[in-house]
# Entry
Amino acid sequence: MTQERMVRAMSTDETPFGVATVRARTSWPSRIVTFAAVAGPPLALLPIMGLLWGVAVRPVDVALLVLMYVVCGLGISVGFHRYFTHRSFETRPWLKATLAILGSMTLQGPVTQWVTDHRKHHALSDQPGDPHSPHTDHHDGWIGSVLGMWHAHVGWLFRTKGMERGDHYGRDLYADSVVRAVDRLYLLWLALTFAIPFAIGYATGGGSVALGLQALIWGGVLRVFLFQHTTWAVNSVCHRFGSRAFPTRDESRNNLAIALMTFGEGWHNNHHAFPASARHGLLRGQFDLSAHLIRLLERCGLVWDVKVPDAAALSRRARSLAAPNVELEPPTRTGA
Ligand SMILES: [Zn+2]
Ligand SMILES: [Zn+2]
# Structure
């Protein structure tokens, strides 16, 4: 348990902790073990790709992996997250449908399920009921840290995913005919996410089924696995490792590595401080590809009403970090 959480807990009606059992912060051995446990599974993908490299790979396979990772990934960051969850901007029905389809092709669940889970995360972040917090319902010590990170990374998919579907956090989505139509065809988008790389590999390989399957492995299976883990790392790593620029009532962190792999989603402390902002890389030098795409779409007249906090709002929020008992202030929740 971190010092901030201690301060917060001790400021409320919660039962005070026994002093002898409370650490000021997680120990370094605990952090290292936790990091290894979380980084291990995604890094294991790299040797698999290394084994195939030079043996079963063509330039078109790599191009498909990169292109589909970026395009479908932006469907999650710009579509599922910034548009459908937080309504950071407005857009036309055809672009809305496109973003929903691209996000669905990452295999992270239908729009309604993804969004309701994520809205619940914001409503209860790092409190009991948060679907994927690494800090709740776990034991203390390094074992508890690892279990918490495991739960936040993949364990929650088997325990708390999809619990709110259609109930409290997503009524607007069920009232949206575009969302309902895209969700009804979810299995089609799943089939397409593998059929597209297979078809391109098959066509560019002179009608070879083997080369089609090879493209499916690179542009389909490995691409989906890589993006799944980088997205899950926002839930696990970005609630434990990184820096905090703004005070929030959770453990959200800004993490450069995760931000680069998720097109800006790793600026997660910024995001919890300003949930409705279309830009997550709010500070100097924080690259945010999703925000650049939204800006480009805005210039083309395809999106409008783009929400971004002004300099005064950023300054007010950042300054409060230095104030005493800042963790006791009510959270600013401009989004869902
Ligand atoms: Zn979060
Ligand atoms: Zn969010």
